[in-house]
């Protein structure tokens, strides 16, 4: 029986790249998103008959159960990997972020991951050992990013969820892992960091001479994470430098952050 992966945020960006990567390896791919047109575009990039499409708002706990049940029906009852990838950016000083922006970021980036874990558990337990819950965290989950306190909080939360479930689900034979990318070349970079900004994130990142990694690097990292033993897989120079500095030169890192430009907004 061929392996299967269910991907949230599958309409574009990291989700699309991971779908293509696993599709090339012969996996059956479930695409989940609120963007149906984008999912159809992703499906067209995959081998014929190798995917199914599921409209899903990750903030809706009941919708998770419905989407995974529908995917299992399409995949002959097998779910090997659930990729908790859907997320949104939010930048700017915390005093500039509206209550609505804060709640939406928390709901999608954090509650959506928790709901996904709850819904995925029985399916992953049934296909264990060898099944995997893969979560998209961020370099912002390694050290808090100036100008992105809410986003950083959600990604620290995803890191914590990953570490907690790694221990909690180990007796069931379910692997839990995260990806920690820096800035990745996806459509999210073309969004404004928050409602009060008329600049896009990509321009800020470029102006500050920060690295933007190709999305294919995250797809390869996802493949390695599912098949390897690492708890957290960092992607890109920024993530690796932050991890090094956090461990070995925390005082210098703090000083640098306090005087650094803020690519996600003031």
TrEMBL record:
SUPFAM superfamilies: NAD(P)-binding Rossmann-fold domains (SSF51735). GO terms for molecular function: oxidoreductase activity, acting on the CH-OH group of donors, NAD or NADP as acceptor. It comes from the Bacteria. InterPro entries: NAD(P)-bd_dom_sf, SDR_fam. Belongs to the short-chain dehydrogenases/reductases (SDR) family. NCBIfam families: PRK08267.1. This is NADP-dependent 3-hydroxy acid dehydrogenase YdfG. It comes from Novosphingobium kunmingense.
């Amino acid at each position: 029986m061929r392996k299967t992966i269910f991907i949230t945020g599958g309409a574009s960006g990291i989700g699309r790249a991971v779908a293509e990567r696993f599709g090339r390896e012969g996996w059956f791919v479930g695409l989940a998103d609120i963007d149906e047109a984008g999912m159809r575009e992703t499906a067209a990039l995959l081998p014929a008959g190798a995917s199914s499409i599921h409209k899903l708002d990750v903030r809706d706990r009941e919708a998770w159960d419905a989407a995974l049940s529908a995917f299992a029906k399409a995949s002959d009852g097998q779910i090997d990997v659930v990729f908790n990838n859907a997320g949104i950016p939010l930048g700017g000083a915390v005093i500039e972020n509206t209550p609505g922006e804060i709640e939406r970021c928390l709901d999608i980036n954090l509650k959506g991951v928790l709901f996904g874990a709850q819904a995925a558990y029985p399916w992953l337990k049934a296909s264990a050992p060898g099944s995997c819950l893969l979560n998209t965290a961020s370099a912002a989950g390694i050290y808090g990013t100036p100008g992105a306190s809410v986003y950083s909080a959600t990604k620290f939360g995803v890191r914590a969820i990953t570490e907690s479930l790694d221990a909690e689900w180990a007796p069931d034979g379910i692997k839990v892992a995260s990806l920690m990318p820096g800035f990745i070349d996806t459509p999210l970079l073309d969004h404004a960091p928050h409602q009060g900004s008329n600049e896009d994130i990509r321009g800020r990142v470029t102006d500050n001479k920060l690295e933007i990694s190709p999305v294919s690097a995250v797809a390869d990292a996802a493949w390695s994470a599912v098949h390897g033993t690492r708890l957290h897989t960092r992607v890109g120079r920024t993530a690796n430098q932050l991890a090094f500095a956090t461990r070995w030169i925390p005082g210098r890192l703090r000083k640098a952050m306090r005087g650094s430009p803020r690519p996600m907004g003031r």
